[in-house]
Specification:
The chain is of the alpha+beta class and 441 residues long. Helix content is 33%, strand content 25%.
Length: 441
């Protein structure tokens, strides 16, 4: 086994968490994307919080631990966490090495034995009385303590001292309580000051969203929506106001950059009713991620993903009702062969728009008269006109709707307008009148 230990000297302050346990839970959920064995130890006034990840079992997925370590450290820096990392075959040794500035990677038992030998005795996590007694005996280095007979140490300092040294060098197993991912994600930031504008939310939001991304990767899941709860300062009557923003997406994703883009758009026009003292991100519905190919054969999927991102951004800026999708319906009457999709359409809505723009019929419904040419621009309702002078071909008869009271009997023709435009017109046989239904542009 090979353990990565992350020492976090200012975790609670940097995470803006209510307590150390909440901060450790958030970061442990983020770390789970790198390892299935994650454990932590809460710090106190005399020692920092520690986070452990077992990386040997993750080698097939992420490569050598020494290559993965810079990636983990880079994400920690991007989230703004002060940290020190070390790799060692035992959790106790990895935690000890985080106290140094240079030697932080001891990958084998041989490296561990030689690497620990010159380190100061004061780094050992032994009671202060034990360390003082060892110093009074003339010992100053860890290697000197490890060279002493274990039986003599046990008689002098008790079996706990020997057990710790055995765990340190990997002679004795060191089981740790494993962290378990929650089924519902909830992360909360508590500010030490009042935020009077939404711009101040962007940095803590960036950290929360990166942690959320790690959680989704750990579960191999994605979301179509998540909620942001803004807790306002209590008013003069002591009531605790709260604002809730729902961030919706057109396709499942787990990318923090896309989340942040949509949140930024939603916050752009948000007017705060009162200063903000806390921020919570929560999600309770998850789905399979939509993985977009990046190779030569993934061009169509990439265009669809770009369209989904554009629609998400427009909805976030203009509002959900301002942007709607189109869905094809199984009806031969042109004005009833499609419908708008209100609210936040999912992948089906985006697919319908893409198919309508490209002229490709939907596989989930049957569009009207797919064998005949149709113009892209339709007039709904159709516009009454004089009888056209030049009919180019036809007629094509559409007789439909008798079952819903909207029955029609029409003869359709491509025609040439007086301005030279190519028009799609029909003769209503019931009214003996002509109408303009669409234009080829």
């Amino acid at each position: 086994m090979l353990w990565l230990c992350i020492r976090l000297p200012a975790l609670r302050h940097e995470a803006l968490a209510a307590d150390e346990d909440a901060a450790l839970a958030r970061l442990s959920a983020w770390a789970y994307q790198w390892s299935s064995q994650v454990c932590h130890r809460r710090g106190d006034e005399s020692r920092a919080s520690l986070l452990w990840l077992e990386l040997a079992a993750s080698g097939a997925l992420f490569g050598e631990p020494t290559a993965l370590l810079p990636r983990i450290e880079r994400e920690l820096r991007e989230m703004g966490y002060s940290h020190t990392c070390a790799l060692a075959p035992s959790p106790a040794a990895a935690a000890l090495l985080t106290q140094g500035q240079t030697l932080r990677c001891l990958l084998t038992q041989a490296e561990l034995s030689s690497g620990l030998a010159p380190l100061p005795l004061g780094w050992l996590e032994l009671p202060s009385e034990t360390r003082d007694a060892l110093r009074s005996a003339g010992l100053s280095r860890i290697g000197e303590v490890l060279a002493m007979p274990r039986a003599a140490l046990a008689r002098r300092f008790g079996p706990e001292c020997c057990d710790y040294l055995a765990r340190l060098v990997g002679e004795l197993s060191d089981p740790q309580p494993s962290f378990r991912l929650p089924e519902i994600y909830r992360a909360r930031c508590v500010f030490d000051y009042d935020l009077h504008d939404t711009q101040g939310l962007l940095f803590p939001l960036q950290r929360l969203l990166q942690e959320f991304q790690g959680y989704l990767r750990a579960r191999d899941r994605a979301v179509l929506r998540f909620n942001l709860e803004l807790e306002h300062v209590r008013d003069a009557r002591g009531s605790h106001a709260q604002s809730c923003l729902t961030i919706g997406l057109s396709s499942p994703t787990r990318e923090a950059a896309r989340f942040l883009m949509l949140v930024r758009e939603r916050l752009h026009n948000l007017v705060l009713s009162a200063p903000i003292r806390a921020l919570t991100l929560c999600a309770d519905a998850f789905t399979t991620p939509a993985i977009v190919q990046a190779d030569l054969f993934g061009a169509a999927e990439q265009r669809s993903d770009e369209l989904a991102q554009l629609l998400d951004r427009l909805r976030a800026r203009l509002g959900v009702e301002a942007v709607q999708g189109l869905q094809l319906l199984a009806d031969h009457r042109p004005e009833r062969a499609f419908a708008s999709v209100p609210g936040v359409p999912g992948v089906t809505g985006v697919t319908g728009v893409t198919q309508a723009l490209s002229g490709t019929p939907s596989t989930s419904s049957t569009p009207f008269a797919t064998c005949a040419p149709r113009p892209l621009a339709l007039l709904c309702p159709p516009q009454r006109i004089e009888a056209p002078a030049a009919l180019l071909q036809g007629p094509e008869r559409i007789a439909s709707g008798w079952w819903d009271g909207g029955d029609v009997v029409r003869d359709y023709y491509p025609a040439r307008g007086g301005d030279g435009s190519r028009q799609w017109v029909f003769h209503d046989l019931r009214e003996d009148a002509w109408y303009l239904q669409g234009l080829w542009v």
